[in-house]
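Box S1 | Example of a co-folding query
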Amino acid sequence: ASYDMGGHDTYMHKEIHEQAEAVDRVLRGRIDDRFSTVHLGGLNLDARDARAVRRVKILGCGTSYHAGQIGAQMIEELARIPADAEPASEFRYRNAVVDPDTLYIAVSQSGETYDVLAAVQELKRKGARVLGIVNVVGSAIAREADGGMYVHAGPEVCVVSTKCFTNTCVAFALLALHLGRTRDLSVRDGKRIIEGLRKLPAQISEMLEQEEDIRKLAAQYAEARSMLFIGRVRGYPVAREASLKLKEVSYIHAEAYPASELKHGPLALIEPALPTVAIVPDDDLLEKNRAAMEEIKARSGQILAVAHQEQEKADHTIVVPKNEDELDPILMGIPLQLLAYHTALALGRDIDKPRNLAKSVTVE
Ligand code: AGP
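Box S1 (continued) | Returned holo structure for 2-deoxy-2-amino glucitol-6-phosphate
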């Protein structure tokens, strides 16, 4: 593909910087202010169908799976429907029980990932209802699904997904809001989420202005042989995605853990040579996250916090603009894309085409 680089040296950099516009596109034409909800006609799911859903199961691979984890949390929080995400490949090989009251959602940037497509086909064979949350219009998964929504991130060329991840998370927020408003989510909460969604593009731009500071931090972390990413509940899938991004593009080994699991093992690894990135949103778990940082500091570990306010326990903090608690994970992922990018750049990696990887895995 040869799209205009618009003055950027790599597609990854270009695509990171396209995110404010991309988020604007996924929101466009979908918000209904009168009823504090959203219109998602392509779902082919009327209010009665939506109310009949007893469970949501989200399937995807890699970054799309991580977006699905964030989506599952949003659906549980806003619609109070039990939801979880699972790698599509695991799902298809474990002979999963397919339940008619579960809404299945396949997530894919390319819409061509074989493991996801095969999972969708298996589900349909068993009579399940499957929606697609897909970027590429008319792709195999979009065609195979019973309905769904396009994420409108625009063409993503870099093998490593950035803007599509962010847009998929926003698409999930729209779906969660929609499902919530067919159930018990109040008009007031619907309105609160809509206001939060509308703030995202400007907050993304504000976030990207910190690129130079993040570049300086990345120059330090580029020396690490391994990094630990921790988060709790809303922050955990953010940590997992950040860890994947760093691995893919810089080849630095990284591992993500729920902050609460540190004491059950990974604390043994902490020493000055293993830096930790802590996702610390300003929500009801802030104190718990501070305690985890204290544990790491007590063992001379270095900490980079991604937070809504300066963190005393951390060596550095990247301060992210605050949104509604449920939407915070969307913005917290963005500085970590920049961290991965600048770490890879400092190490001279082939950023748009990391070794051993393909943009979409269309084979078994
Ligand atoms: C993303 O940075 C990865 N290269 C990879 O994990 C990707 O998300 C995965 O292969 C799924 O692709 P898809 O979204 O096109 O289905």
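Residues 61-64, 108-110, 113, 116, 159-161, 248, 357, 360-361 surround 2-deoxy-2-amino glucitol-6-phosphate (CB under 6 Å). The longest strand covers residues 102-108.
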